[in-house]
Design a protein that fits this description.
Number of strands: 7
Strand content: 15-25%
Distance between the termini: 34 Å
Order of helices and strands: HEEHHEEHHHEEEH
Number of helices: 7
Radius of gyration: 20 Å
Length: about 210
Amino acid sequence: MSFQRLGLVVQDSRTAHYDLGPAALKLGLASLSRLDAVRLARERMPALMQTIGHTLALAVWGNRGPTIVHWEESSQAVTANLRLGDVMPLLSSATGRCFAAHMPREAVAPMLQDELAHAAKLRRTDLPTTAAAVDTLLTEVRTHGSACVVDTLLPGIVGFCVPVFDSDGHMVLGIVTLGSVATFDAAWGGAVHGPLARAAAQLSADLGYAG
């Protein structure tokens, strides 16, 4: 009765079963709005790095594209000329591919067009050079639930990026890891990708994503 008076539960007059009331809904939405995805991800990075043994980074969508906002180097540090605030390309980086696959098409279309033209001008055979090829690539990213690149952004470097979603199903950040091709397990579901994907799925669930 106390919960009913507070609006936390309501009772169905037909079945007499209880369900969450409007006050409980407001509390839930208020709690979700206070969650900081980057803060929660940063808190979990040390344990994740211990598991996979490779450098980790966090990226969010900025006004110029996918932007690195946090970086933690492992003991197996790789030579990667990346810094906080760097904007990652959409076609040649795992981070960019992940965001391109999950952001609204109108948000990424102008950048994709510019990068397509640049890739065609350089005659790069390791990158898509047509809109149809880009669609195929992004479909593969969505199918795997992650993006992976080998040698496309940095020579001798493998990178994974997995998406984190909020309660509305929007991608709010990408968890990124990279390492040398000599020591990095680039297999889907392998020693690197498996723990990374599970960490992103758990963080998404904690942010209210239903899957």
